[in-house]
Design goal:
With about 400 residues, this protein is mainly α. About 65% of the residues lie in helices and about 0% in strands. The chain has one domain (about 10-370). It is built from 19 helices and two strands. The protein is globular.
C-alpha cells in the first residue's frame, strides 16, 4: 500500500503509469499469442530449455521452440538459453505448462512483480520526481522486457532489494540479493569484487558466499556436465551482432575492431579497479561503478539491464547527467533500433544510442564520488592579511 506521505500528484502519476503499463502488457500478449503467427519470444527458449532438461537432453542446444533474433544485418540467429544452470530449476516447471499458458503466466507475474517493486520504491522515496516515476513505470527498459518476455524484472526486484539494503545499512539483505543476482547473471561478479576493493569486506563476503552456494545447487540435480553445456553455448554465442548488446567488446566487434574493444575494456576495468583501491568510494558509488563496469567490460550485456540501476537513479539528487539519462531511457527503442539497422553509417548512431547511457551511468557515479570526496575535504584555515610568517 502507498504510504500517506506520498503526494497525491505522485500517486496519480504512478497509477497512470500502472494503467499504461497494464495496457502495454495486454497488447504484448495479444500481439505475440493471438497473431496469425504465434510467437513465444524468449519464453519459447526458456520453455524449450526446461523441456529439454525434463527429458534429460541438452538444455543449451537449439530446440523447436527456441526463439530467433535478427542481427544488425538482418540474419536470423538462434536465441539460445545462455542463463546459468541455476535457472533451469525455474524453466523446468514452466515447461510442464503449455507454451501459451507459460507465456501468459510469465507476463502476468513479471507485471505484478514490477508494479509491486515500483510501488515500494515510491513508498520508500516519496520525493521522487514525476519524470522519474514516468521513467520507472513506462521507460524503454521495462517495455522491452515485457514485449520480449525476458526475465529482467527478476533483476529489477533483486536490484531494488540490494539498493534498499545498502541505503538503509541492511547489509544481510543487500548481500543476499547481490549474491543471487550474481548467481543468475555472472557478469555482475564485479559487484562483490568492487565492494571488497573499496573496503566493504563483510558485505563482499556475504554476497560472494551466497553466489557460490546458489551456483553450486544445480550440481545436485544435473551433475557437472550441464555446466560444460552452458559454457559451450556461451562460447559460441553471437549476440554481439545485436545492437542491444551494449558492452565495449561487442560494440567494437560490430565495427570490425574486436581486439581493440577488448583492449579498451580491459584498460577501463584496470583503471576502475585502481580507483576503487585508492579512492575507496562509499558503498553506493562503488556499487554503481561496479554495475557500469560489468556492462561495459563484459562480452555480453543488454541495454535492458538498466532496470538494475533504476532504484538508485530515480532516487538520486537532481543532476544534469541524471536528467540526460532519464530522457534517453524514456525514448522507445523502436526508433534507435530502426536507425541501427540502416545499411550505411547511420547504423553507428543507432548503436550509440544504446551504448552511450552506460558511459553516462559510469560518469554519474564517478562524479558523485568525486563531489563527495571534495565536499569532505577540510577547508584550510585562512591567515589574516596583517600576519607575517615566522622567520626561522
Amino acid at each position: 500500500m502507498i504510504a500517506p506521505h506520498v503526494s497525491r500528484r505522485s500517486l496519480a502519476v504512478y497509477l497512470a503509469g500502472l494503467f499504461a503499463l497494464a495496457a502495454f502488457a495486454v497488447a504484448s500478449v495479444k500481439v505475440n499469442l493471438f497473431a496469425a503467427t504465434k510467437e513465444y519470444r524468449v519464453v519459447g527458449t526458456y520453455w524449450a530449455s526446461g523441456d529439454a532438461a525434463n527429458h534429460h537432453q541438452n538444455p543449451y542446444a537449439v530446440h523447436p521452440l527456441t526463439a530467433y533474433f535478427y542481427d544488425i544485418d538482418g540474419h536470423a540467429v538462434p536465441d539460445l538459453n545462455l542463463n546459468p544452470p541455476l535457472l533451469l530449476l525455474l524453466f523446468q516447471p514452466m515447461a510442464l505448462l503449455s507454451p501459451t499458458s507459460a507465456f501468459f503466466i510469465w507476463t502476468l507475474v513479471s507485471f505484478l512483480l514490477f508494479i509491486g517493486t515500483s510501488a515500494f520504491l515510491l513508498w520508500d522515496n516519496p520525493n521522487m520526481s514525476d519524470a522519474c516515476i514516468v521513467l520507472m513505470m513506462v521507460g524503454a527498459p521495462i517495455l522491452d522486457t515485457l514485449m520480449l518476455a525476458q526475465l529482467y524484472v527478476l533483476l529489477y526486484v533483486l536490484g531494488a532489494v540490494a539498493w534498499w539494503g545498502l541505503q538503509n545499512k541492511r547489509n544481510l539483505a543487500a548481500g543476499v540479493a547481490i549474491g543471487i543476482l550474481v548467481a543468475i547473471k555472472p557478469i555482475f561478479i564485479l559487484w562483490p569484487v568492487f565492494l571488497f576493493l573499496s573496503g566493504k569486506r563483510k558485505l563482499a563476503a556475504v554476497s560472494s558466499t551466497v553466489a557460490l552456494v546458489a551456483s553450486a545447487v544445480p550440481l545436485a540435480f544435473y551433475g557437472y556436465q550441464v555446466f560444460f553445456q552452458w559454457l559451450t553455448a556461451v562460447r559460441d554465442d553471437q549476440h554481439y551482432s545485436e545492437a542491444f548488446d551494449v558492452s565495449i567488446p561487442a560494440f567494437a566487434r560490430r565495427l570490425g575492431h574486436g581486439t581493440l574493444g577488448e583492449v579498451i575494456a580491459g584498460a577501463l576495468l584496470v583503471a576502475l579497479i585502481i580507483h576503487a583501491i585508492r579512492a575507496k568510494p562509499n558503498v553506493l558509488n562503488a556499487s554503481g561503478i561496479a554495475l557500469s563496469a560489468s556492462l561495459l567490460c563484459s562480452p555480453l550485456a543488454w541495454s535492458q539491464y538498466a532496470l538494475l540501476l533504476f532504484p538508485v537513479l530515480v532516487t538520486a539528487p537532481e543532476h544534469r547527467l541524471k536528467k540526460t539519462l532519464v530522457i534517453i531511457l524514456s525514448v522507445p527503442t523502436y526508433f534507435p533500433e530502426l536507425v541501427a539497422s540502416a545499411p550505411d553509417h547511420r547504423k553507428i548512431l543507432g548503436q550509440l544510442f544504446f551504448f552511450a547511457p552506460w558511459w553516462l551511468f559510469l560518469g554519474f557515479f564517478l562524479l558523485k564520488d568525486f563531489e563527495l570526496k571534495r565536499s569532505s575535504e577540510p577547508i584550510p584555515a585562512r591567515i589574516p592579511a596583517n600576519t607575517c610568517p615566522t622567520a626561522f
